[in-house]
Amino acid sequence: MKILLTGATGYIGKRLLPILVANGYEIICCVRDRNRFKIPKGFEKNIKVIEVDFLKEETLLEIPSDIDAAYYLIHSMSSSSDNYDELESISANNFVQRINKTNAKQVIYLTGIVNDESLSKHLSSRKNVEDILSSGTYVMTALRAGIIVGSGSASFEIIRDLVNKLPIMITPKWLNTKCQPIAINDVLEFLSKSLLNPVTYNQNFDIGGPDILTYKEMLLAFAKAKNLKRWIFTIPIMTPKLSSYWLYFVTSTSYKLASALVSSMKVEVVCRDTKINELLDVKPMTYEMALSRALLKVEADNVASSWKDSLVSGRFKTNISTYLKIPKKDCFIDRRKKEIIDREYTINKIWSIGGETGWYYGDWLWNLRGFIDKLYGGVGSRRGRTNKHNINPGDSLDFWRVLYSNKEEGKLILFAEMKLPGEAWLEFKILGNTLYQSATFRPRGIWGKLYWYAVLPFHGFIFNGMLNKLVK
Question: What is the pTM of this model?
Answer without folding.
Answer: 0.88
